[in-house]
Amino acid sequence: MKPDWLDTKEYPFKSKFLELEAGKMHYIDEGQGHPIVMIHGTPSWSFAYRNLIKILSKKYRCVALDLIGFGLSDKPKDWSYKPRAHAANFEQLMAHLGLDNITLLVHDFGAPIGLAYAIKHPEKVQNIVMLNTWTWSLSNHQVFSKASKYLVGPLGKFLHSKLNLTTDQLVHELFGQESKMPEKLKEQYTRALGDPDDTVSSLACARELVGVSKWYDELWKERKKIQDTPTLILWGERDKLVKIEALQRWKKFFHECYVLHFEDSGHFLMEEHADEVSRYVSNFIKEEDKKKEKTLHNS
Predict the structure, then answer these.
(1) What are the domain boundaries of the chain?
(2) Whole-number Å distance between alpha carbons of 104 and 114
(3) Whole-number CA gyration radius for the chain
(4) In angstroms, what CA-CA distances link 193 with 2, 40, 57, 197, 223?
């Protein structure tokens, strides 16, 4: 049953759930064709991708989940919320759906979760699309010292400084003035975080996501498995959280990488430029499918 606060005109999708040990994970599965799997950041949920799904589901199969603790998924109080646990849940969803040749579309904290899956199952991931995101490394490790100065900190520093805010204040600060989003839409993010009287410190978005872990170290060591994966990066240059240095890092990371800049946009490209983002994603997938067919034909 959908909550009474949900705007079903903005989010007109059929809800599906997967029973996990942590609780019920909510996801939507719209359209047919090449699968595009969308992983949200924090404090967000699949609602952020609603406009992309409305457009892309006309030609593609669009899957968007709510991580446990977010959106319409359960919010257990006794669960770890560690990134490794989120990644394990995502892997279970992918196994449940049995998808192949997927395009992973990640934003914000969705990157380490999606890339963890791609590293473990590179044969199932055909393309990667990234929107203003990063992954963390161990800042005190010599091998990470240069790369991690900006990869470790954006969300961690932000949350540490905002732990005393209410969910409403947090959402307002995250979207700030960079987006012309109406208050009624911001409310969809606020209400999805849980009880509006709770402080951020008691919410999943601020628990276990701050700090460092050997898990990020493990991911980094396995990075070669996905460096040849065709990747499209769409970047809002006015992002207050993830700075342009992170983009430079990603450009060096992937061997086949296409980058498109949005000079007047911030952290939430899918809210500000859904039509353009959808068009770029669709064109990217079409081109990569053509390359794949040509390679198979010549082999």
Answers:
(1) 15-298
(2) 7
(3) 18
(4) 15, 13, 26, 11, 32
Name the CATH superfamily housing domain 15-298.
Alpha/Beta hydrolase fold, catalytic domain (3.40.50.1820)
Q: Exposure string (b/e) for 253-278, b if CB count within 10 Å is 16 or more?
A: bbeebbeeebeebbbbbbbbbbeebb
Give pLDDT, residue 196: 55
3-class secondary structure for the chain? Answer: CCCCCCCCCCCCCCCEEEEECCEEEEEEEECCCCEEEEECCCCCCHHHHHHHHHHHCCCCEEEEECCCCCCCCCCCCCCCCCHHHHHHHHHHHHHHHCCCCEEEEEEECHHHHHHHHHHHCHHHEEEEEEEEECCCCCCCCHHHCCCHHHHCCHHHHHHHHHCCCEHHHHHHHHHCCCCCCCHHHHHHHHHHCCCCCCEHHHCHHHCCCCCCCHHHHHHHHCHHHCCCCCEEEEEECCCCCCCHHHHHHHHHHCCCEEEEEECCCCCCHHHHCHHHHHHHHHHHHHHHHHHHHHHHHHC
Do you know the residue count of the chain?
299
Token output for 112: 């380490």
Residue range 48-100, pLDDT digits in tens: 999 999 999 999 999 999 999 889 999 888 887 778 889 999 999 999 999 99
